[in-house]
Design a protein that fits this description.
- By secondary structure, the protein is an alpha/beta fold.
- It has a single domain (21-322), classed as Rossmann fold, CATH 3.40.50.
- It has 10 helices and 9 strands.
- The chain has helices spanning 7-30, 45-60, 96-110, 116-125, 127-146, 148-156, 170-178, 195-198, 219-251, 258-263, and strands spanning 35-39, 64-70, 84-88, 161-164, 182-184, 267-270, 286-288, 315-317, 320-322.
- The chain is globular and about 55 Å long.
- GO terms for molecular function: UDP-glycosyltransferase activity.
């Protein structure tokens, strides 16, 4: 057996990984005034809502938040009471029509209203647009890193960590460029889901998110599971090769592999409740925070219920109930 595959070396690697994760947790939770930088090009609305709630919570605990944003951001305001921002000028932005159509079709597929063949046809047909969307993100990252004055300001600010959405590749590259710890906010990658990337995940027993399968699959369901995984992996690697790896080669050096940088995140905040997940391997740096968006319900004023009547009519058609 070669030296690199000896069980002792695997145990040493795992021990080093666990100790590093524990150190990161102690560092983050012991500090009362963290300086956090967030790299955002143009998050989809759901991703920004998710990030925004987290930023407000960090600000309420005395941490300092800085956002690097595109001048064509859809939802991220230039001025805010709980963060300061740096704006990077870019020539183009993500196609909002494409994002809306893609999300709508994905929801229909997950609800079973869109056949697998139609979904795959849509995915393959829109792949060039998918790459183009990440090309726009890549242009934002290049413009940001090429701005020497901005980079000097960010270095002099002495941030403690980079908080980013792994669905887009800018934060990963910025963290490496500034040599800062990297924290992810959601479970999604460029294409696919995080667990399949960070831990061994046998596809015969672990369903692809959105496939509709359970952990007990028939032969054909397993074939479907593997096929969907291959589609997302192909998308991921093609986008990385065509967009983000080129940026890494230019600004970080040819020895930096984007895929490895992505997997080297220090902490991964998984916005998912593990109670509703099927059993699967995970890693020590994955923190499950399902329900963090929930807030205490506001008490209704008694006056608002005066003379308020509700009439509900229920109808059952084709085994479906509607109101």
């Amino acid at each position: 057996m070669g030296t690199s595959t000896h069980p002792y070396h695997h145990r040493c690697w795992l021990l080093n990984f666990v100790l590093k994760t524990i150190w990161m947790f102690l560092f983050l939770f012991s500090r009362k005034d963290l300086k956090v930088i967030i790299s955002i090009n143009n998050l989809k609305r759901s991703h920004w809502i998710n990030m925004d709630i987290l930023l407000q919570a960090l600000h309420s605990r005395g941490h300092n938040i800085t956002i690097v944003r595109s001048d064509k951001s859809w939802y991220i305001k230039d001025k805010s009471t709980y963060y300061r921002s740096f704006t990077v000028e870019v020539k183009r932005s993500l196609d909002q029509k494409y994002i809306t159509e893609l999300v709508s079709k994905a929801i229909l597929f997950e609800r079973g209203a869109l056949p697998l063949t139609n979904f795959l046809h849509m995915t393959l047909g829109m792949f060039s647009t998918f790459v183009d969307a990440h090309m726009a993100v890549g242009e934002f990252v290049s413009a940001m890193l090429s701005d020497q004055e901005l980079m000097r300001t960010l270095r002099d600010s002495k941030f403690d960590l980079v908080l980013t959405d792994p669905c887009w590749g800018g934060g990963v590259i910025l963290a490496k460029y500034l040599n800062l710890p990297l924290v992810y906010n959601v479970r999604w990658l460029i294409a696919g889901e995080a667990h399949l990337a960070i831990a061994p995940s046998p596809l015969s027993y672990i369903p692809i998110t959105g496939s509709g399968n359970t952990d007990k699959m028939t032969f054909f369901q397993r074939v479907k599971n593997v096929f969907l995984h291959l589609v997302t992996q192909t998308q991921h690697h093609l986008v990385v090769r065509q967009v983000y790896q080129k940026i890494c080669d230019k600004y970080l050096g040819p020895d930096n592999d984007y895929h490895q940088l992505m997997l080297d995140a220090d902490i991964w905040l998984m916005r998912v409740d593990f109670v509703f997940e099927f059993p699967r391997p995970t890693m020590p740096n994955a923190v499950y925070m399902g329900g963090f968006q929930c807030k205490p319900a506001k008490r209704l004023l008694s006056t608002s219920l005066v003379n308020f009547n509700v009439v509900a009519v229920w109808r059952e058609t084709n085994n479906e109930v509607s109101m």
